[in-house]
Amino acid sequence: MAKAKTKHVCQDCGHTAPRWLGQCPDCGAWGTFVEEIEAPVAAKAVASKTAASGGFARTSGPARSPLPLREVELTHEDRLRTGVGEFDRVLGGGLLRGAFVLVAGDPGIGKSTLMTQLGRMLPGQRILYVTGEESPRQVKLRAQRLGVDSDAFLLLAETNVEDIAHAVLETRPDVLVVDSIQTLFRPDIESAPGSVSQVRESAATLMHLAKSLEMPTFVVGHVTKAGQVAGPRVLEHMVDTVLQFEGDGHHSYRVLRALKNRFGSTNEIGVFEMKSDGLHEVSNPSELFLSERQYGASGSAVVCTLEGTRPLLVEVQALVAPTAYGTPQRTATGFDGRRLQVLLAVLERRAGRRLSTSDVFVSVAGGVRLEEPSADLGVAIAIASSLADVPADSNTVALGEIGLGGEVRSVGQIELRLKEAARLGFTQALVPKAGLKGLLPPKGLDVVPVATLREALERVT
Ligand code: TYD
Ligand code: MG
Hints:
Blueprint: E1 5-10, E2 16-17, E3 33-38, H1 41-51, E4 79-80, H2 85-90, E5 95-96, E6 100-105, H3 111-121, E7 127-131, H4 136-145, E8 153-157, H5 161-171, E9 175-179, H6 196-213, E10 217-222, H7 233-238, E11 241-246, E12 253-261, E13 269-275, E14 278-281, H8 285-290, E15 300-307, E16 310-322, E17 330-333, H9 337-350, E18 358-364, H10 376-388, E19 396-398, E20 401-402, E21 408-409, H11 414-423, E22 428-432, E23 446-450, H12 453-460
Parallel strand pairs: 6-10, 6-11, 7-8, 7-9, 9-10, 15-19, 17-18, 19-22, 22-23
Antiparallel strand pairs: 1-2, 1-3, 4-5, 11-12, 12-13, 13-14, 15-16, 16-18, 20-21
Helix pairs in contact: 5-6, 9-10, 10-12
The structure holds thymidine-5'-diphosphate (TYD) and magnesium ion.
């Protein structure tokens, strides 16, 4: 028997090399190579026989011939609705036949819970739940807690991809769930479960199944400490949709974010709350994120960020305190720390706020992460308000990116954001003066155009 050889694989693009490389010659990434054991030649020859048909011969029918575009049939509205609005939203309006969806997130965030709840969301659909991490008993206990009790919910404790494929071909479920991809292995590949090749090849086999049977498939994946989906980045490239489950242990809110979606818009979010009987959708998250607001306190401002197509109103809090000794501390939760440094410098130099001897803490309420530049103005207002210990007007929402010159720059989709602010009873909105032409403000909302940060601060503090 031939001896097993090792090879080195780039985790980003899958480039292979006989020895370790610092930089990938293909995609240029640094430090992405990992060592893997290559399948022995004899095993490979057997594998390639089955690999030609994706590892299982029975699904491949006669070879297909190319079709003129006109003859491609479109079955209309082929989306399976889950009945849970927040979930349908991130999927792009429902679950498409043959969709291959990766559900990623930290351990304990609620991936298995969400997947088990599919049994409740899709009544009448046969769901095959393949568990590689938990025993059927554990899954059953959770299902009981979630009120999932149906003959259409099938359980299989298996990690061998070929056996899973055969089980799928035998039971022909409507929906397949695999929890998790890191536990699967294909016997023809020598490296351990969870390694780059195993994850990639296992996913390829499942993908082939999903597409040929037009069976929607959910694959659960863990994320690494750095927040990336463990296993090769190619996994993210392969799948149709990547749903990332976010949230922290201290809040019961969970945000399901579509990082990639071939069948809908990306960055769409669904908001859920984890309760004792599972995840509940939150269909009006703005109200939720503003519900704990303390009126009349300094250091608070409301911004309107856009998540996919949905405007979300969020409270930003800041606390400015004199530095006790040494270097001032700057800490941001839910907001980029470097962006905070920039805003502090602009506040100091362009708006005359002395902050160089103060500690500054910024926090976004509800565990939300503000990634959009439109939040700049609100963050700056919260800081200035805390510094002066003067509350900012609590009926005002602030929109605008801040440039290094202290100017307030335009943001996209302004009407959508203003509509949401008006809906929640805000009476005033600070908006960038630039790009305001033709804007129709919603009823009851006083739109105040501002050109500079200094001007904005004068209006509200
Ligand atoms: P789980 O779905 O097992 O997380 P993952 O699969 O992402 O690792 O969920 C784990 C947490 O959720 C666990 O701490 C218990 C909590 N939980 C609830 O609060 N309510 C519930 O109904 C369930 C099933 C879990
Ligand atoms: Mg789990």
